[in-house]
# Entry
Amino acid sequence: MDPTALEPAADFRADQLQSSLADSGFTSVTVLDQVDSTNRWLAELAPEAGGAELSAVVTGFQTAGKGRLDRQWFTPPGVALTFSVACSPHTAAGAPWPVEYVPWLTLIMAHSVTHVVRNLVGVPAVIKWPNDVLVDSRKVCGVLASLVSPPDGSAPSAVVGAGLNVSQRHLPVPTATSLLLEAGDAEAVPGRQALLTEILREFARCYHRVSVDPGAELGPGGDVRALLESEVDTLGRRVALHLPGSTVPEQAVAEGLGTSGELLVRGHDGAARALSAGDVVHVRPTPGEPRTAAEQRAIHAIRDVTAGDRA
Ligand code: BTN
# Structure
């Protein structure tokens, strides 16, 4: 019998996670059989941790997982990778990251998952701005970040959580998928502990790289910015914007990412705007339909920006 049927986190070993992640800067990795929400659990501890870097928690089952826009996030016991990381973003010189760069943590986590899904599982994952990882247009992972402000007014900590569908054979909606369904073979899907180890390693690598000089890495021409942009499949696409408070989707072309990772779009009327909230749904051109001039321009602009060395 699958041990996770009785203990949803039976396949995780906290001691092994701690030792294999210590050189990536993780000071603690906690394994919980079940919890309401790893984001909520870590957010409560983050102020007490007093800026200790980095800490993570993983669980086999969330009873009240949180999604974006106050939605619930539910995955059955034992079959998804649900975890959170707490960090206190400071530069190497000890100053807090400039506040405009903190929202990039969501994309750094989405990148870390994308990177591992591509390299360890061999399926072509991409990022859908701002927080989804898709394979073949279906969602395999969602990311949720929140800021935790200490009562003493010191710099906020961040909690960044991700839920990755690993071995579900059936998903509740046709727009979702799992690594097992995409790989088509259980042998091709690494265990949750291996996936988590590599995702946290990649997150720490990017996080520490940005911490050396956030403006240089995430500003125009920055290497980490270019790496993230190269994976954001939304860029260069026509998008239907489902904005809070509006029932009619707006059509636009996604042209780039702003200073804080917001999506820069251009509407049919030629007006540019920056989006930092709301749902963005990709609109694919119908087969045979040529790209519009605005799409062509956006794609060229993005290629120019991302054509340098990768981080
Ligand atoms: C979304 O797509 O809406 C974001 C989903 C984020 C889910 C993860 S699972 C681990 C962490 N803990 C939570 O309560 N939520 C995030």
Summary: The chain is about 30% helix and 25% strand. The two ends are 43 Å apart (CA to CA). The longest helix spans residues 192-212. Residues 299-311 have pLDDT under 50 and may be disordered.
